[in-house]
Amino acid sequence: MLTERASGILLHVSSLPSRGGIGDLGPAAYAFADFLAAAKQQYWQVLPLSPTGYGNSPYSALSAFAGNPLFISLEVLAAQGWLDGSSLDDLPGAEGPADFEAAARHKYPLLQRAAERFAAHSGGALRSRFEQFCEESSFWLDPYASFAVLRSMFAGASWSEWPPEYVQRDPGAMAAFRAEHGHERLMQKIIQFFFDEQWHALRDYCGERKIGFIGDAAIFVNYDSCDVWMNPEIFDLDEQKKSLQVSGVPPDYFSPTGQKWGNPLYRWDVLKRRNFDWWEARIRRALSLCDLLRLDHFRGFEAYWSIPAEDETAVRGSWVKAPGMQLFQRLRAQLGDLPLIAEDLGLITPEVEKLRTSCGLPGMRVMQFGFSGRGAHIHLPHRCEENMVIYTGTHDNDTTMGWWHTASETERAAIAAYLHPGDDGVVWAMMRGAAASVARLCLFPMQDLLQLGGEGRMNTPAQSVGNWTWRYSSDALQPWIAEKLAALTEVTDRDGWVEPHNENP
Fold first, then answer.
1. Range of the domain at 322
2. How many angstroms separate the Cα of 307 from the Cα of each of 133, 210, 262, 486?
3. With a threshold of 0.85, does the pTM exceed it?
4. Which of 211, 237, 242, 468 has its CB 3.0 to 4.6 Å from that of 206, i.e. a possible disulfide?
């Protein structure tokens, strides 16, 4: 449970204005950490850090365990001597939308070059640290290294389209592959070590400034992932390793045919027999990278919408129960107290609410949702509970300014009555409302701090192109924004100051 009032900013790593065409863990990340400290924020929330596949969605990753190589800072590698500084001259600039494809073209060859130099010249304590990383991460790192090399060998094709001996992971074929491609697999492990080292260095820097990280874990994994390739027995697949049932959500007011996400579903019966070992490893890895962890689509741990894989829509799906309480009991027994946040948005039943409260997990409220009618008022500050996380909006919403520009007359009238926006506009009025709530944690998307319109939107659900590309400009972190947010943070008691105990009032 959340115990202290705090606030923070939601900003994915890809949205930093770093050189190379995409945000990374280099100088821009440290500048943002300094901005958070100046604004007296205690949390930096990111989206999943995994390597992305088709569409570049962090929720459709190639691995639930690995870090995204594109987030590795080449500038940091050059400063450490693993690259020549001149090799960075042709990198894409720091301005403009994130360009995953351009970043991959420029960064992957240089990451390979740095890994080669590391393999040839690293030694001493650093080499020992790398070897320890490989040993401690072997559960996921060894399979991922093979997966990444094979994916490269077959021009990025899905693992289901590889030669049959690799699809089925024939023991003889895999042994021969590992023997023949040991060096390439080593390169992948070194690149993952680069990510891990840079992430923990940034986390230490933030920790010194009393800033924690909030991570994010998607409930489902991508079919084209190392996780499904390596663990087909825990997913609902047929003998040819094709999905039988897939994920999504049922038809509703917003979508008459529902949403078919297409992720393979878990075989919870198998996972239960294995004491949820894969989930334990996954949550253990995630919590090694962050201080709090948001569980996406929490309601799917109570019951999930199961859709026949061959269907084009989600209409013929059905609800299937999941062993959520048994899973969380096992995780708590193995990992101790679970610093988790339940993303309990969407169709939330009493059973889902009971699971969340029985586990003691904070839920989420999104102020943008609260003005459409009386039934939506649970998202407004006066309906919050202490063990709650309140947002003005999330990565799946339009920015608050963009939402305001398209708001209905009913919503505008409700905002005027509830918030009385002043000279600084509706965005800051929303932020003040969220910060003043009793919810112990309050989070603002960075786009709202910058008062951006729809051009700053991060993701439009069910839209397959044009997402995940927003980056802020290199001159965006103005001191006055930090000062104004710091003042709001102080007056709403979210700055970490603890009132001294007075024994003789």
1. 6-491
2. 39, 44, 8, 47
3. yes
4. 211
Using DSSP's 3-state secondary structure scheme, residue 318 falls into: strand
Residue-wise pLDDT tens digits, 151-197: 999 999 999 999 999 999 999 999 999 999 999 999 999 999 999 99
Q: Which amino acid is at 460?
A: T
Active-site annotation holder among 24, 296, 302, 344? 296
Residue 61's CB is within 10 A of a number of other CB atoms, namely 23
Measured distance CA(469)–CA(37) in Å, rounded: 26
Q: Which residues contact 5 (CB under 8 A, 6 or more apart)?
A: 440, 441, 492, 493, 494
The answer to whether 343 is a known catalytic residue is yes
**Residue 31 located in a structural domain:** yes
CATH number assigned to the domain comprising residue 210: 3.20.20.80
Q: Is 296 a catalytic residue?
A: yes
Domain count across the chain: 1
Taking only the tens place, the pLDDT of each residue in 315-357 is: 999 999 999 999 999 999 999 999 999 999 988 999 999 999 9
Establish whether 396 is a catalytic residue. yes
> Has residue 421 been placed in a domain?
yes
